[in-house]
Amino acid sequence: MEEVWVTGAGMTRIGRRSEPLPELMAEAALAALAMAGLERPEAIVVAAMNPEEFVGDGNFASNVASHMGFADVPTLRVETATSSGAAAFYTGFAEVASGLCSTVLVVGGEKMTHIATPRVSELIGRSIDPYERSYGATMPALAALITRALMARHGVGEREIAAVAVKNHAHAARNPLAHFPTPVSMDEVMASRMVSDPLRLLHCCPISDGAAAVVLSDTRGPVRVAGVGQGTDTLALRHRHDLTSFRATQTAARAAFTMAGFGPARVDFAELHDAFAPFELIALEDIGLVPPGKSGTITLDGETALDGRLPINPSGGLKARGHPLAATGLAQIVECVWQLVGRAEGRQLNARVALAHSIGGLATNNWVTLLEASR
Amino acid sequence: MEEVWVTGAGMTRIGRRSEPLPELMAEAALAALAMAGLERPEAIVVAAMNPEEFVGDGNFASNVASHMGFADVPTLRVETATSSGAAAFYTGFAEVASGLCSTVLVVGGEKMTHIATPRVSELIGRSIDPYERSYGATMPALAALITRALMARHGVGEREIAAVAVKNHAHAARNPLAHFPTPVSMDEVMASRMVSDPLRLLHCCPISDGAAAVVLSDTRGPVRVAGVGQGTDTLALRHRHDLTSFRATQTAARAAFTMAGFGPARVDFAELHDAFAPFELIALEDIGLVPPGKSGTITLDGETALDGRLPINPSGGLKARGHPLAATGLAQIVECVWQLVGRAEGRQLNARVALAHSIGGLATNNWVTLLEASR
Predict the structure, then answer these.
(1) Shortest CA gap B145–chain A (Å)
(2) What's the half-sphere exposure (Cβ side, CA atoms, 13 Å) at A34?
(3) Among residues A75, A250, A279, B59, which one has the fewest Cβ atoms lying within 10 Å of its Cβ?
(4) Do A127 and B58 touch (CB under 8 A)?
């Protein structure tokens, strides 16, 4: 298997955007190509969760490639719900690792803010098991169920959960591309309106537009892909053994660390899928970054803050950088790359190994990606 | 790059099906796994063009894997409009060729016959460039434009075009899984109702339900993947240099033959994307299987019939086997494999090298796959 390097990374500002989705994706892609010093990739992998219903276009890989002026570059679309960006990264990785391509542009994006929130919620809710959906389950409702179990069975407290949101908003305040670059206080989080008990508005990520892209290459670049791992689980929550940890994350992490040949202790910082604040606590333990039962207290103690021992979500995370679905898995990787090469002005860490963790659906299709600085 | 083999191939009967789509896909997948003698693949690649709107489900790779009892097997979805099955095959190929996986199940399917035809046409039409779509362009309308140019500029006659449909229906009559296993006469084709002048109903493929699957492996099997090539073109027809040949097919064929290390002369038979009968004539020349300007006459002369020099679409093609969108690219490969291993009872060819050709959108994202018998 060939070594694979990330030679470029770019993204748009995340938030409410008026540009058409292919234009946002071109903006991110051209930024990644510019950083890589590459005029034209050998292949393109496009991530979009549901362009047919969000923006009304199909054949979307060809649409995006044509829009970027790359109509003659081979392209395909990859989708695994909310982790589509990470899945596209893996597909590009396989194309380079196999020797099929020397350079691959991976670009993901989504545009949703022009659609009424209940409709967005309905469309995202199609990721849920049809039977559970038929009883009215929505993503926030199922996440609330999980959060309630976490509090009841593992003693996770409301302040520990709120601390995730407070920290990630504080990080986003240093990220000019974040959807919500605004600090929030513990009191504000805990007084924000209830979305699905016990989850409040400021525990939940926003609906965002945006795009992110990376360039993968078989020639040495500033960042090496050390490991990529995927993990999956049953579509139906009722078929799982455990509500308070995600097998899909555990499996993905194990696979990524096995490929990398090192363990969680080598990770200097991570971008974790905090679509709901408690999910960051679950991921910390599932990946093995902190011991079981400790994620809440170490978060409250500030260990996962920018100046802590193990910074988590320096970008602001899904919570505050924003969550443009298929862009998110790539936006996490962009943040990792920028941190590793010293381009994260205002929130720069001193780091060598980064981890990105993306959740597809309600943790049915998760990915862990390990990146290592070449220096 | 590792050698990649097809060790299993299976598909459902194509036509109007009442079963849910994941069930059709499981039927095809389990048949492919049975032929491969494999209980459980290491990874799954799912092809579906638009399950969100055709069947109302998202997160579809996880949905299908869960339904098959493979919730713990890594899975992702690949989409390139009507060539999604071929794109998924390529993705599985890359996973095995890179050494990332030893065995990959690739399964594609679509279910559309429960939806009113105008709505299906609208959904498929989203593959067309948005600007051209805004003027009312549909797939049959654009195909008719191309057909008209083919007749005017290259002297292709109505009987030559009709002969494609007559031949493919005759082949389908020997295929128990075909949507339309019924012969049609030249007169019937030429008297069938006009869909979009000069294309008549019996020049056009039907709307079909169905699924197809293959198992790819890094250990020697009965059929070797000799080459896989992709070609792309502008989304907009008005941006192309030529209407009467498809650059995307030409590029895909060149790439596949380069990987295989042999040329079109080695091909014993082919499955070509005849969504509209004239497209078979275009593909024959674009791939280099017949000299320019000869595809019409050799078809009329019976050279592409089952007992001809170069059998084309022994399965019946999209025209008569049917065209369940994302299943199609894989159904073509299933037919190739079955022919190469002697499982095509009733229409068995004596062949060693097979070619499958799949068109995505209006020839924006095309694939050519070359398969070779191991014996």
Answers:
(1) 20
(2) 8
(3) A250
(4) yes
